[in-house]
Amino acid sequence: MSAGASETHYRRGLNRRHREWLAAALFVAPDALGLLVFLGVPMVLALGLGFFEVTGFGGIAFAGLDNYKKMFVDPLFLDSLKVTVTYVVGFVVGVFVVSLGLALLVQQKIPFVGFFRSMFFLPHVVSLVVVGLVWQFMLTDGVGVVNQVLEAVGIGGRSWLGDPQFALATVVLVSIWFFMGYYMIIFLAGLQEIPREYYDAAKIDGARSWQLFRHITWPLLKPTSFFVLLVSTITGVAGLQAFDLIYVMTKGGPANSTSLGIFYIYQQAFQFNDYGYAAAMSSFLVLLLLAATALMFVLTKGGRFETE
Amino acid sequence: MISSAFKGPDEVNSVNLIPSAPTLDNFRYVFTEVPFLRYMLNSLFVATTVTVAALWFHSMAAYALARLRFPGRDVLFFAIFSTLLVALPIILVPLFILVRELGMLDSYVGLIVPAIFNAFGIFLLRQFYLGMPQELEDAAFVDGCGYWGVYWHVILPLSRPILAALAVFFFLANWNSFLWPLTITQNQDLWMIQVAISSFQTQYAGAWNYIMAAATVAAIPTMALFFVFQRQLVESIKTSGFK
User: Fold this and answer.
1) In A, residues 138-167, which contact B (CB 8 Å cutoff)?
2) How many domains, in total, are found in chain B?
3) One Pfam family name from the record (chain B) (predicted)?
4) Which of A32, A190, B1, B87 has its Cβ near the most Cβ atoms within 10 Å?
């Protein structure tokens, strides 16, 4: 089959194998270089930078472990860790339950199911900046729509974003609302992998819907569940998305109650120009991320991606 | 949001869904008093360039990693794969310093180039190419195509569906990106739309009719994309779940 091919290649000076190597190198080069420069180098820098005092545009001095020592006596940093952990636990558990619930719901044969799928997913398409703005508008103290509705039904509104007691929970809820459609799609894909015959057979045996879920859906959905848990944890700890929301909705307040680790690091770096300290805290966040991932592996007994 | 964008300042905080006196003033304000069009064009330019460049480079790399044999291929793939876990916030500070040293602060290059590279696209495309039948490529080789010819005439046309799905996904992600543009642009002429509306919020605190109009303007393109390319978007997310 490839006799003609190798002849073509031998015609030129290089032999076929070397031509293949050369082609591969050229194909991979742009991405490999880009990833090395814009991900690899910063990763290494991140670890090293924590040992330096970097101030503003220029000055850099070796600081040894100073930045790391400072971290553990900085009450704001310790608070931000507490906020991060609370946020991640709330977000991961919430988004898991809600998106799985939605997926099970829109998988049913109910009228307008396509419409509902789209509606649940729509928030995810709009940017978090816009989402944050709109929610902030709806939650405005006193005059926001949410409070007006709550008061109309007699529950009474509250200061959602102004009260340290509620602000973080509010941000968690908005995050869940934003991500539920995304994970719903992933759960739906997982659900569609489960052979229908299993359900039919179980129904003949007289299984109720709870039993169907407990004995068929739940175990067979494990790889998908693990994927969702893993990705949502990374999303939560890294805080990329939460950052946008917090920047727009609360700026870390009130009383630092929503100052996620990543937000505090951003402030230290770009508002106070303390890059070294920020890098030290980033390294710590990476450790937290690894720990969370490892914990997840243990809790799910290895996760078993491969059983798919 | 959309209804509030049409409301006048005195009505903006009321609950009624339909404005009693709908007005386009808010939009007029957003486009005339603030260079909103410029911000949108910035976003359009950056997001489009990133999407095209990323898909091109990723599909090339993915093809080589899936189909060509060369020493160190598995090591290289593993190295690329391991960067999947690195999220932007974690490397934000060193990346900023690096980009500053390269002289790319406050420039389109700085907005575009670092955003192109991510392992996610390479990974998905490689999976796709691994599942493609080999015969068509062989036939092309027999017809005298080189590796570039096979990539250009066989691989790219065959990957149109997945490229379309990823294109929608990448475009949305970049149109909506906020943290990176916020970090590296001081010059207002380079602001992308998300940065612009977040600054709008600080500037017009409380003037919700303007803020909502601005938010609507920023969200309409993404919602339009969603309704047109719903299937592609959902497909790209589904495939991302099958690791």
Assistant:
1) 140, 143-145, 148-149
2) 1
3) BPD_transp_1
4) A190
